[in-house]
Description:
By secondary structure, chain A is an alpha/beta fold. Chain A has helices spanning about 25-35, 35-55, 65-75, 110-115, 130-135, 165-180, and strands at about 60, 95-100, 125, 155-160.
Amino acid sequence: MSSGGPEVTSIARVPVEGSKIAPIEQLADVLYKLPGGALLLTTVENVLNWARASSLWPLTFGLACCAMEMMQAFATRFDLDRFGVIPRATPRQADLIIVSGRCTIKMAPVVRRLWEQMPEPKYVISMGSCATCGGPFYYDNYSILKGIDTVIPVDVYVPGCPPRPEALIEGVLKLQEKIKRERRLSRRA
Amino acid sequence: MAKALRTEELILNMGPQHPSTHGVLRLLVTLDGENIVEVMPDIGYLHSSVEKMMEHRNYTQCIALADRGMDYLAALSNEMAIVRAAETLGGIQVPERARYIRTIFLELQRIASHLLWLGTYGIDLGATTAFLWCMRERELVMDLFESVTGGRLHHVYFRLGGVNEDLPTGWTDRCREFCHYFLNRLGEYHRLLTGNPIWQARTQGIGVLTREQAIAFGASGPVARASGVPWDVRKTHPYEVYDRVEFQVPVYTEGDCFARYLVRMDEMRESARIILQCLDQMPQGEVRTPRLSLTPKLPPGEVYTRVESPRGDLGIHLVSRGEETPWRVKIRAPSFSNLFALTQMMKGWKVADIIAILGSIDIVLADVDR
């Protein structure tokens, strides 16, 4: 996504009808109306976004073949750690889930629950054709989900079967760009 | 105290998201304190229905599907299984050079697969260095694959009656160089792990599978060979040029995790030796039978063939009714049998040994579930 494009928010961050507004956001609404408040909010937000984008901790969660390339991306030659991407083994500590590979109908509720267990703000990368749309298992197949975005909202799609580690790194960088342009506090009001 | 402490069994649910299950496996573990009473694997989280899908694909498309739908760490072994079944049924001849190329690639695939196993097993047992070293060497194999097939994991390189393309210029030299380099590195792994007291304490004597149990469960590959079953399809039913190269089948009788580790380490050495011999013997010439249709119609009949994948005895039962597509394909997956040998291996061990034992059998869930 180029920086000049329209702002795209994922489904996860569209406020649900009747949902409670967090206290920090209520405070932001008040601050926004005060003189100089917008400037303050934007500055605070930029700092927060910078911190979020620079320490994306993904969940160690491999589904299928793409998990091998994900492992390779964390390993010696490609080394995703240098972008602050350090895999965590529990969803409670993770803020990114890389759906690497095909997801079966049996597995879908598990992926959904893992995503729900992650603390906000959380992001999803759909890695590979299978996670994006079912891939080679799209036709005459009874067990594979036709895209992970039918279960959880996806921020970045990485194409390929499987994508090379470089492609995954590109996807992570795109996600970082997206996070840096996010407006959680100042876009309200 | 007159009354003894009351104890009861605890059922622990492990997976499907767990860093050491190597995919999406769920284990239902019944525990008595810290001791394992029973382990029951719950599979099917990666069932991709490839057997059914193959009934609607022609044989060339089946090769592409076999890469992805079956054991994704050994894509070329899957291709070989499909190709061998179809060629046996159709009586298709393969040029000499193509047979050598196939053997080289199958063995490179074995090295890559075992390297990934060693790396992840190292991480499971807390040796992160092993992971980083193994991935470094695995990248070199991936480069060799990529320069010929264009793919890193999924190659779609084998065809009925040969392989897709000849090797590029200079590839054989690079491959030979890699083999010598890799044999040196293998000594490094041995120095890092084999004599390491922590590694030995975690693996030696743990998760013993006896010879009788291995045979009863239909275990194959390194799991069976570590239990003293000298069964290797490359020796018993030679395919391609395995009867023309000299190699040993490592067999250990202990049946524990350490024996399974040693079998795979020895297999990597033997694979490198096979590749070097094939490179020396490889003739020039065609790599694909000319004038063979891409969508051949095989004669009616059925055939069962097997190949030795890195995980064991991979069998294909192919039924043809004289059409472009198979009528039925049944895949005999080695990981499936090996996984259920786990129920015997784990009885009586501690919770912490679950990871050591599960890692040592080297299952790929796509192979279990198909």
